[in-house]
Structures are given as structure tokens and as C-alpha cells.
Design brief:
Elements lengths: L1 E12 L4 E9 L2 E6 L5 E7 L4 E4 L1 E6 L7 H10 L2 E10 L5 H15 L3 E8 L2 H4 L3 H6 L4 E5 L11 H13 L3 E5 L3 H13 L14 H18 L3 E3 L5 H12 L4 E5 L1 H5 L2 H4 L15 H12 L5 E2 L27 H10 L6 H15 L17 E11 L18 E11 L2 E5 L2 E2 L20
Parallel strand pairs: 1-4, 1-5, 6-7, 7-8, 8-9, 9-10, 10-11, 11-12, 12-13
Antiparallel strand pairs: 1-2, 2-3, 5-14, 14-15, 15-16, 16-17
The structure holds zinc ion.
The site of zinc ion (ZN) has 5 residues, from loops.
């Protein structure tokens, strides 16, 4: 048979092997993966000299700041991302179900790529009662915050236990921003009273031990309720010690870190003031190294971007500046630069960390996450030999800055296919608004491997 399109001569990457192969695409899915030259296609895409990776799945995005769902999905494509999982935040006073429906409608009409949703609970005692209905809508993972009490975001242990009980009895997964929130608030208040320089002392307000404590408490409550817990954005060596302990002792925990923690340290970011303010804080070189070790050893399951570009400038007041940065477009090349080019991980591990593992944990597998026959033809053609320099000017987010400004990276996204359609071809963006489909998740199936 003649395929609609073949991607030929590339190095096709799976978590367990790399094949020199051609991929035949029939409509929206992969039809066959075969040795070079065996397949025929009406159209051909030459991937000579490039890796063909499964489309990146970003399990951690926030489309409510400078990039809305449409903008976020567009900057994501430039970074090789073909599926995003947004946090649908239900702020105090909001209905979780209304928020989920609103995100879904906005996504279906404006997203360039497929998307799923996590719920986000801020008024957890009340909103937790809406969780069973959310499952019927295809949302099966729900985040709470153990921190940010002053912003009105914090969920206390009682409410978190209730939410995990309901999530668990429906077969889903909790996600927890794990930090000892009230201790951090006290430390901040004390520094405020001292009129301290917050940029200088930022790490004191997001201590590694607070992350470790939060992780242990969240996953322990999960165990009491039989609820798997996903820990996003792990940033510290201390946090990883707890993750290792929990994993070796049979607790149901999934661990995520982000490119900003793998590529940067607070020492080098400090000069950029509020731009580098993200929560949890980007910490020390020791933490960065510990994170890579955990990635290498498989203690970290997924890498997500935590893309949350906020409107702020270097000269703004540090304490008042919001947490967050644009990350989705640089995620793959940054992980490649600091992980693959340094020899810490292989391209195969990239396929696992940035695609297959996230698909399995959220239940999108095998439709997403792997270049197998029958799966959606979502793929990234990545040139490992192209050098480029990151600058806010060559990024496609609405943010006017990037934390990786001036960094030279080796390896660049060249082409992106979403369900068989070429949506990025070099410098040409070919995606269409509204092409993205809503994906129902089935998170929390344990064990996920
Ligand atoms: Zn986040």
C-alpha cells in the first residue's frame, strides 16, 4: 500500500532502542515502521541526520497568564510539543466543572494541538464534591497546593485527605504542590519585617527541607487514602531523598521535574531579579546535579515545563512579582543540551521522560507517547547537530523574556507532525487553530509501567 506520508531516513527513538527506519503514516496514525526504503508514500519527509522522537507530551502547563490556550499551544509546537495537559484552575468561588468545561471549549476552538486537563482545586472542601462529575468529563487528576496560604490557594491536610479519598475511590490521581506552606509564610513575614533583600534571600523562602516535608506529608496522606500522588516540579536534593525513600518503600508516587531546575541555578539567575522568580525556587548547583542523577537513575518519571509566563520586568519589586516563567518551547532542547549532550542520558531516555511516561501516567497511552503502529502520528524531527542561541526574540511566547537568554544549545526542533499533519516545517508554522482535540485521561492506574 501507499501511505499518505512517510518520514524516511531518520533515527526513530523508543525508550528501549533506536532504529534507522521509515515511518508510514495512514491518515492520522502510524501505519508501519520499517527498514529504510521499504515503504512508499504519496508524500515524503526526509529526516536524514535527525532523530525522530515521539511528540513531546507536556504534563504541566498553565494557559491563563501571558499565553492563553491558543498561544500556549503555538509556542509549544515550536518546542516539539504535540500534547499539552493544562491545569484547569478553579479559583475560590469557581465551580470545578464549569472551569473544566470552559477550558475544554476554549481548547477545542483555539488549540493547535491535542490537550487534556487536570483539575486544580483552591476551595478544596467544597470543590472536591465535584470530582466524581469531573471523571465523567474525562478529567481524572486533580491538583492542590500545600502552600500560598496568603494568596488563598492553600489546601489544609483535612481537605487534602477528603480530596484524595474521593479521587482514590474514582480511580484517579492527585497532584500536589508540596511545600510546607505556613512555615514559608512565617519566614517571608520575618524577612519582610527585617526589610530584607528578597532577591538575595529568595532561597530562604523556598527551602529544600520544606519541599521534602511537603512531599512526605502529601504522599503519606495519599497512602492513607489509597491515592497515587504526582509531585510536580521537584527542585531539590532534599526532596529527591524523600522521593527515593517513598519509592523504595512502595508508596504510590510519581515524580516530575522541569527544565528550569535541570538547566539553571539561582546563583546565575539572581541578577535577573523577578524574572527568575518561580515556585518552588530554582536552587543550587548541588540540587541541579542531584536532579540529573535522579533523572539518570529513573527516580524522576517525567519532565514537564510548568509554563506560566507572567508579566514582569527585571526592575520590578521582587517580593510583589508573581511566580512563573515561559518554558514550554525550550523544554526539549534544554533537556537535550544539559542531559544528552553531556552524556548523562540517551535520546531513548528523552523519549521516555518527555513523552511515553507522561502518556502512561495520565492514561493517554498508547494513543499518545510512542511511535508504534496504531498510535497517533505525533512526532518531532530533531536535528542534534544544529547550534542555536536562545533569545526572547526567537521564542514564540507572549512573554518578553526567557530564563535561558543567551544560552547556546546544540540540537533543534526542525519539523513537527501532529496526527499525521506537518504543523511545523523549519521556520514555517503550518498549524491550524482549533485542530487540537480534547483527550480524556485515565490517570492513576497503578502500576503504570
Ligand atoms: Zn505549575
Amino acid at each position: 500500500m501507499k501511505y499518505d506520508c512517510i518520514v524516511k531516513n531518520g533515527l526513530v527513538v523508543y525508550p528501549e532502542r533506536t532504529l534507522k527506519a521509515d515511518i508510514g503514516i495512514a491518515r492520522e496514525t502510524i501505519g508501519k515502521v520499517a527498514p529504510p526504503g521499504e515503504l512508499e508514500g504519496k508524500e515524503e519527509i526526509d529526516a536524514q541526520g535527525c532523530y525522530v522522537l515521539p511528540g513531546v507530551i507536556d504534563p504541566h502547563t498553565h494557559p491563563v497568564y501571558m499565553d492563553n490556550i491558543s498561544d500556549l499551544s503555538r509556542t509549544a509546537v515550536w518546542g516539539g510539543v504535540t500534547t499539552v495537559i493544562h491545569y484547569a484552575y478553579a479559583r475560590p468561588g469557581d465551580s470545578l466543572i464549569e472551569k473544566i468545561e470552559q477550558y475544554r471549549e476554549e481548547g477545542e476552538s483555539t488549540s493547535y494541538i491535542d490537550f487534556a486537563l487536570h483539575g486544580g482545586l483552591f476551595e478544596t472542601m467544597k470543590q472536591a464534591d465535584e470530582i466524581p462529575e469531573a471523571f465523567r468529563l474525562g478529567v481524572t487528576s486533580f491538583k492542590v497546593f500545600m502552600s500560598y496560604a496568603k494568596l488563598g490557594w492553600m489546601t489544609d491536610d483535612y481537605a487534602m485527605t477528603k480530596a484524595m479519598d474521593i479521587i482514590s475511590s474514582n480511580g484517579g490521581m492527585a497532584a500536589v504542590h508540596a511545600e510546607t506552606g505556613l512555615a514559608i509564610d512565617y519566614i517571608q513575614d520575618k524577612l519582610l519585617a527585617e526589610k530584607a533583600d528578597f532577591a538575595e534571600r529568595f532561597l530562604e523562602t523556598s527551602p529544600d527541607v520544606a519541599e521534602a516535608e511537603g512531599i512526605f506529608r502529601a504522599v503519606s496522606i495519599g497512602k492513607l487514602m489509597g491515592c497515587p500522588v504526582y509531585i510536580p516540579h521537584i527542585s531539590s536534593s532534599e526532596g529527591l531523598k524523600v522521593i527515593r525513600f517513598l519509592k523504595t518503600n512502595g508508596f504510590k508516587v510519581y515524580a516530575e521535574t522541569c527544565p528550569q531546575y535541570l538547566g539553571l541555578t539561582w546563583d546565575e539567575l539572581k541578577a535577573r531579579g523577578p524574572l527568575g522568580k518561580v515556585g518552588p525556587a530554582i536552587k543550587t548547583e548541588n540540587d541541579r546535579k542531584a536532579l540529573w542523577k535522579a533523572v539518570e537513575e529513573g527516580v524522576i518519571d517525567t519532565i514537564g515545563s510548568d509554563h506560566a509566563p507572567k508579566d514582569k520586568k527585571e526592575k520590578d519589586d521582587f517580593f510583589d512579582a508573581p511566580y512563573g516563567s515561559p518554558e514550554v518551547e525550550t523544554m526539549l532542547p534544554v533537556v537535550w543540551q544539559y542531559g544528552v549532550n553531556t552524556g548523562i542520558i540517551t535520546p531513548n531516555r528523552v523519549a521516555a521522560l518527555l513523552s511515553e511516561n507522561s502518556a502512561k501516567i495520565t492514561g493517554l497511552f498508547p494513543q499518545k507517547g510512542r511511535l508504534d503502529p496504531g498510535s497517533d502520528a505525533d512526532m518531532v524531527i530533531f536535528d542534534p547537530a544544529e547550534k542555536w542561541i536562545v533569545s526572547a526574540r526567537n521564542q514564540h511566547t507572549n512573554a518578553t523574556y526567557t530564563l535561558f537568554e543567551g544560552k547556546e544549545l546544540l540540537g533543534r526542533v526542525k519539523r513537527v507532525l501532529s496526527r499525521g499533519k506537518l504543523i511545523l516545517d523549519g521556520d514555517n508554522f503550518l498549524g491550524e487553530k482549533g485542530d487540537g482535540r480534547f483527550l480524556k485521561s485515565k490517570a492513576g492506574k497503578w502500576p503504570w509501567r
